[in-house]
Structures are given as C-alpha cells and as structure tokens.
C-alpha cells in the first residue's frame, strides 16, 4: 500500500477501505507516514467528507492505536456521558451520583484540560483529600460497591487522535464533522463504555455555535457509536448562556450539592434529569424515559443521590462533610457584586465571554501550565428572561487577586445585555437516537 495512492483516492472523492484507513492510522502513530502526507489526506477529507463506514473505520483504527480500558470486571451495562463542552457545565458532578443512586454503574475516566474552568477532576479536587490516583483494582472495586468512581486519564489512550488533533490544529482541518465525530467517539469507546449519552451543546458558549452544525455533529456521532456496536444517543442542548448559576470549581461543587438536594438551578436540574433518564434507560434499569425520570426524582427526594455523592467522595479519600458544610470548600477572599446599570429584562448572557471572565479570575487554564484557583469564579444572579432593576446585582464575582478586576467587570458588562424584553431560550433543542 502507498500513502500517495490513498491521498489520490480521497482527493478524487472515492471511498477508502477499512485496510487503507488502518494503514494510515497505524503508519501515522508509528511515524512511518510523515505529517505532510497526512496533512494532504486531512485536507482531502475536509473537502470530500467521509462515508458512514469510513467514519466507523477511522474511529476504530484510532481506538486500536493505544490502550483500551477493560471494564468487564464491572457488573452491569456501563453508560458514559460526554458533553461537547460549555461554560459552567456542572452536569458530570451531578449525574454520576444521581444515576449511581438508581443502580447504574458509572466508571468515569476524566481529565483536567484547558478552558474557562477546570475539568471534572479539578472541580472534585476542591474537596479536601479527594484524589483520582486509583489502581485499576481499586477503581473496579469502588464501582462495583459504590456504583461510582472517577479515575484520571490513562497516558496512552487514543495516541493517534492526539497526533491527528494537533496536526489538524495547524492545517485548518479541525472543523470537519467526520473528523470531530470520530475523534470524540474514539476516546469514549477506548474508555470502555458499553453505551454512550452525548450532550451536544449549541450557542455562543459551545464548540458548535450554530444549531444546524450541532445537529449534524450529533447525528454523526450517534451513527458512529451504533455502527461500532455501542448504543449511542444525543441530546442537543442550549449553551447560549451558561448552564446554572455557578462558573468556577468550588462554586460548581457547591452547585452540584444543591442540585443533588433538589435545590439547584432549574435549567441544570432539568438537563441532568433528561440526560440521566437516557443513561438509566440505556443501562436497562428502566424501560421508559418517564419511568427513569421518576426514579431519579425519587433518588433526589429521598436523599439517596446526596448519600451516594458522600460515599463516592469518602471512597476516594475526600472529606464528605463538605456536603453538609460547604464552607469547608476553598473560599475566595473577595466577593464583589456587579450592579445593573439599567432596568429591564436580561435579553442575552454571552456564555463564552462570561467563561473568559471566569478564566481571567483564575478559575480555568489558558495554557497547560496555568495554575487553577479552585476558590474563584462567578455566580450569576440573573438569567436570560429575568426582570432586573437598576442597581440589582447581575453577578457575584469571587476573586482572590484583584489586579485584573476592572477588566473582568468590563467583560461581564459587555456580556450581559438588558433590553425591554428578554426570553429564556429553550434548554433542550432536540434529541437524536440511533433509530
Ligand atoms: N473535541 C475533540 O475531542 N475532537 C475534535 O476533533 C474536536 C473537539
Ligand atoms: Ca454551573
């Protein structure tokens, strides 16, 4: 097989075979095929697209390029959830204990990553003592006993995807639906899930800002998952404004605790119930969405979801008393209100700009080397559609370092629009199933 022939075939709009795709991915992983040839192929894919079978083949070739997590020692159907990322997305912290409370095993591998706030692991590390350095035996035991554990990312998961993503970044080929869909799905499949619920965000704070593109990505990922034998479905949800009120690590842990108690923000609670119901159905703990939702609502009502969160934290060395006493979480030195400069209704809260303001406070990483301040962040006091009077607080800013505070305030004022009338966007835009 010759790489140049494969490039030519794709350039001419023909379909690549399973063997050809495997040849490219293996050759690129072991460095026998150079960047410049893979770049040419990526650009051809960008313009010519990929068929369903090519997408499935690319996904599986990337899965097979490194370690695959074996969850077979864990009883039951393991369902993973993946969000394409947004601002103040606290769902993972809530969904884990929530679905675990009704018997769904959650074996979660998570990362730190870049962004407006830390990843799930950073957030959980706001709980004193909590750690994710588990052996695979401890991980398996915790999931079997407590139905929930979180482990740090293995070093050699989908190395082909890491290399390809870096190359796409510098060859203007990131924005290709077949490449994005295979990239995301390869990581979920290598992490061992039997079934996958995807939360594809759309709006200013999302990777896919445009609804039509979000839908196309959701459909592409659902087809790949089902074609490679993992039951997959997607919810398309709004990320034009941040989810919930909290954006920041310790603040989001507190918000997760509130939500597990049944006292969380309406939008965050609803999204968790929708995503959670799909997880419960896919793991065959309920037959219908309605039945699953009722089980989850009962788990919140009875306190079982909150107890599950406490057991999970102590199981991984964390101080579970933070659940009853959130003052034990890291606290910022300064709390600053941002008063509205006019009256009316909130008509827009531009999610990505609010996220950037949180990052400037130190809640997230701008580069891999940045240090996160777990205590800082933002609490929205108003959401789109709410009435505001001049002088009302729009946001509480939690800060330690005040050197950039004026820049943060300016950014927030620019991100929050007040008009005569504002209407809350629909939270659940659509659902995509494999059927
Ligand atoms: N996120 C991923 O993991 N891969 C992509 O290609 C794009 C976003
Ligand atoms: Ca939030």
From TrEMBL:
<dbReference type="GO" id="GO:0006206">
    <property type="term" value="P:pyrimidine nucleobase metabolic process"/>
</dbReference>
<protein>
    <recommendedName>
        <fullName>Pyrimidine-nucleoside phosphorylase</fullName>
        <ecNumber>2.4.2.2</ecNumber>
    </recommendedName>
</protein>
<dbReference type="GO" id="GO:0009032">
    <property type="term" value="F:thymidine phosphorylase activity"/>
</dbReference>
<dbReference type="InterPro" id="IPR035902">
    <property type="entry name" value="Nuc_phospho_transferase"/>
</dbReference>
<dbReference type="InterPro" id="IPR017459">
    <property type="entry name" value="Glycosyl_Trfase_fam3_N_dom"/>
</dbReference>
<dbReference type="InterPro" id="IPR017872">
    <property type="entry name" value="Pyrmidine_PPase_CS"/>
</dbReference>
<dbReference type="GO" id="GO:0004645">
    <property type="term" value="F:1,4-alpha-oligoglucan phosphorylase activity"/>
</dbReference>
<keyword id="KW-0630">Potassium</keyword>
<dbReference type="GO" id="GO:0006213">
    <property type="term" value="P:pyrimidine nucleoside metabolic process"/>
</dbReference>
<dbReference type="Pfam" id="PF07831">
    <property type="entry name" value="PYNP_C"/>
</dbReference>
<dbReference type="GO" id="GO:0047847">
    <property type="term" value="F:deoxyuridine phosphorylase activity"/>
</dbReference>
<comment type="similarity">
    <text>Belongs to the thymidine/pyrimidine-nucleoside phosphorylase family.</text>
</comment>
<comment type="function">
    <text>Catalyzes phosphorolysis of the pyrimidine nucleosides uridine, thymidine and 2'-deoxyuridine with the formation of the corresponding pyrimidine base and ribose-1-phosphate.</text>
</comment>
<dbReference type="Pfam" id="PF00591">
    <property type="entry name" value="Glycos_transf_3"/>
</dbReference>
<dbReference type="InterPro" id="IPR000053">
    <property type="entry name" value="Thymidine/pyrmidine_PPase"/>
</dbReference>
<keyword id="KW-0328">Glycosyltransferase</keyword>
<dbReference type="GO" id="GO:0004850">
    <property type="term" value="F:uridine phosphorylase activity"/>
</dbReference>
<dbReference type="GO" id="GO:0046872">
    <property type="term" value="F:metal ion binding"/>
</dbReference>
<keyword id="KW-0479">Metal-binding</keyword>
<dbReference type="Pfam" id="PF02885">
    <property type="entry name" value="Glycos_trans_3N"/>
</dbReference>
<dbReference type="InterPro" id="IPR013102">
    <property type="entry name" value="PYNP_C"/>
</dbReference>
<dbReference type="InterPro" id="IPR036320">
    <property type="entry name" value="Glycosyl_Trfase_fam3_N_dom_sf"/>
</dbReference>
<dbReference type="InterPro" id="IPR036566">
    <property type="entry name" value="PYNP-like_C_sf"/>
</dbReference>
<dbReference type="InterPro" id="IPR000312">
    <property type="entry name" value="Glycosyl_Trfase_fam3"/>
</dbReference>
<dbReference type="InterPro" id="IPR018090">
    <property type="entry name" value="Pyrmidine_PPas_bac/euk"/>
</dbReference>
<comment type="subunit">
    <text>Homodimer.</text>
</comment>
<dbReference type="GO" id="GO:0005829">
    <property type="term" value="C:cytosol"/>
</dbReference>
<keyword id="KW-0808">Transferase</keyword>
<feature type="domain" description="Pyrimidine nucleoside phosphorylase C-terminal">
    <location>
        <begin position="345"/>
        <end position="419"/>
    </location>
</feature>
